[in-house]
Amino acid sequence: MSTVNLQKIEEAVKMILEAVGEDPQREGLIETPKRVAKMYAEMFSGLNEDPKEYFKTVFHEEHEELVLVKDIPFHSMCEHHLVPFYGKAHIAYIPRGGVVTGLSKLARAVETTARRPQLQERITSTIADSIMEMLKPYGVYVVIEAEHMCMTMRGIKKPGAKTVTAVARGIYEQDHVKRSEILSFIQMK
Ligand SMILES: Nc1nc2c(ncn2[C@@H]2O[C@H](COP(=O)(O)OP(=O)(O)OP(=O)(O)O)[C@@H](O)[C@H]2O)c(=O)[nH]1
Ligand SMILES: [Zn+2]
To answer: Which GO terms describe its cellular component (predicted)?
Structure first.
């Protein structure tokens, strides 16, 4: 259930428009507070969701080897500036005890985690920790690469700069050879 207060967002957007010197009553802006409220409700819809829920869907398959879903596109909102950052997530894990999850659930966990005011580091660790807790695999390695609009369109203004975050859990914490294997699969076209 969404706890987003649409009316409050509308009022706030109207105030921002006034504060920057715009006329919220002019034709082009009259519907803008409503549109922005709807947009925020959508972009922050992950706030009341728990990515762990998705990993309740499991299948029994004796595959105690690598599973990697790479190039999962995502976009999120930087919690410092409320502007987007976007890129790709790559999720690798090694199942244990014949417990594998649905491949789409890995992408769903990215989506849910990204749809709230976020830091790239926190998206990365939340996904890794959710998988560890729910699937109890031998290990998880999550890599996220993203461009932050707050570094592109304002402030330091460095378009093209990419931030890479990686979180290793379980056997990936110690095993750099296994981590390198994932990184080479990620680079493969
Ligand atoms: N660690 C981390 N930092 C982020 C992320 N998104 C944005 N930031 C950074 O958050 C920082 C906020 O710094 P502040 O000095 O408080 O704010 P600011 O004056 O707007 O900073 P500048 O961006 O340097 O102009 C900036 O360095 C941003 O680049 C993120 O996902 N992770
Ligand atoms: Zn930012």
So the answer is: cytoplasm
